[in-house]
UniProtKB/TrEMBL annotation:
This is Odorant-binding protein 4. Pfam families: PBP_GOBP. The keyword Signal applies. InterPro entries: PBP/GOBP, PBP_GOBP_sf. Residues 1-18 form the signal peptide. It comes from Copidosoma floridanum (Wasp). One of its GO terms (molecular function) is odorant binding. Keywords: Signal.
Amino acid sequence: MNKSILIIVAACISFVFAEPKESVLIPDFRRKDVLRARQSFCYAGNGFNDEKLREIKEFRIYPSDDSYYCYTGCFTTETKSIITGEKVFSEQYIKAALYRTFPEKKANSIIAKCKNIKVSKDICDAGKTIHSCFTIQQIVLADFIGYLDSDVI
């Protein structure tokens, strides 16, 4: 068998069975760019936008559709397995978002209560689950994972 085919097969197998990397903290100097990029990525295709975000942040009016939950699920999860579609809670983005407001110890305490929750493969259902976990702690995720032009990141 050709060596290059063996290398490709080995790489594919290692990719499939790879465990997710330990969450790496986003450096302060990159936080704004990374969080803005994540927000733009998660806005795409689910109907959530700046106007809906503004209504949540200013008036606590949530959209009548699932767009907020789909956005939340996108922002706060990562795909663990491409094959199964399994998702896991993403500490990396939540830490970056919460650290801009809370001291590290307080943010870690908030995150610890939600990081082991089982999230659905469906991104919108995952968003509902994660939203609920933070709501129990009186944290409005939209205040931290959504940014308007006037917000300081």
